């Protein structure tokens, strides 16, 4: 249990988790693609049809798709903002909101 708590805390600090969901996943299987779609729909506040389009435009990147949905950004701008924030979705969502 302690090891699980440590690894969970590390994933959160590394920006791989946002609002309790793993956002830094590689959708390599049908199951993970379906999970990615649900995560983008939930965190992006969009229907699954829009989430599917966002994921396709984001080349499968959940973080990029969520940022595109929440901030109405192009893929290029979302990727740039994520890069500037070290890949941390939470920081990228806060940036430019002040």
Any idea of the CATH topology?
Helicase, Ruva Protein, domain 3
The largest β sheet comes out as: 2 strands, antiparallel
Estimate percent helicity. 55-70%
The count of domains is 1
- Unreliably modeled segments: none
Assign the CATH class. Answer: Mainly Alpha
Distance between the termini: 38 Å
State the total count of DSSP E strands. 2
Write the H/E string, N to C.
HEEHHHHH
As a whole number of angstroms, the C-alpha radius of gyration is 13 Å
Q: What's the rounded overall pLDDT mean?
A: 91
CATH hierarchy: architecture:
Orthogonal Bundle
Which structural class fits the helix and strand makeup?
mainly alpha
Strand content: under 5%
* Overall 3D shape: globular
User: Helical element count?
Assistant: 6
**How are the strands ordered across the major sheet?**
1-2
